[in-house]
Amino acid sequence: MQFTHYTPGLPHGGFCSILETLQIFSIKLTRLDGGLEFPLSVYGVVAIRDMVDRNRNILFSRDIREAQELKQSDPFLHLIGPSRAILFEDHIGIEIQLRVAGTVGSQDRALISDACRYRRGYGLGVTSLRFKNILCTLELRSQPVKKTVQATILGVQVATDDGSWPLKYGGLVACSPLSGKIVAIDSAITRNIDPPSSQIVLIDSKGKAMPKGDSGHVHLWRQVVSVEFEGGLDLVIQAYSKFGDVGAETSAHFTPQVCNISQQKCTLGDAQVTFTVAWSLVPEDCFL
User: Fold this and answer.
1) What residue ranges do the domains of the chain occupy?
2) What is the pTM assigned to this prediction?
3) Which pLDDT belongs to residue 180?
């Protein structure tokens, strides 16, 4: 959000622009070996470094006290980042340090430790980058996005007149950055929506109530995504029923901006949902 409040038309020092970035969709544990099996308590760090400042941009970070339990039915790491858009001018660095938590400290063991340089040149489609060792395979799904701005989902507020919580059985908040391409269907012009596999999960509370913040705000795991400037951004929220299926769903569409804050309101059952998104140009140089 460094440039959310800059005034369009005024110089910004050449530190930001509409640039190519790397979208991170998910990180998934796809194979276990060496006597390991699900469920598995995992902790550690996954981070990316780009050419802006070469600092760690954290995607996943947990210590042993908050180790995440990965299951066969849900082997995805709960990502908390990136904290800003990932510049993808030439290459990025990816660092992985994950461990398995045992019942006592001496039983902890390394799961995977790796570092690599990932370069441009794999096209604009979704790419699965796999990290392997004798114990596991970790799959990172990403996609280069040209001419992007940065969207920070500032708030998802759920409010009812009677103060009840429609997400008491859990829920999902996700977004889908849309392509700027258009296609003609039945003589009408519509945007070409990305496939469901490109959906980015911001939080998913399965089997338990969604944590309720002040004034009904949902605490998201991650908030920053890259959005093609000529495309769009769809935000969706689902409320699960006590049987675990989707009891109610609503969504909102946002048109990308170079700065400022956008807000959309919609109805989820008897509740009103307010989505708030902050827009910013992408930093291309460290100036602090």
Assistant:
1) 16-283
2) 0.89
3) 66
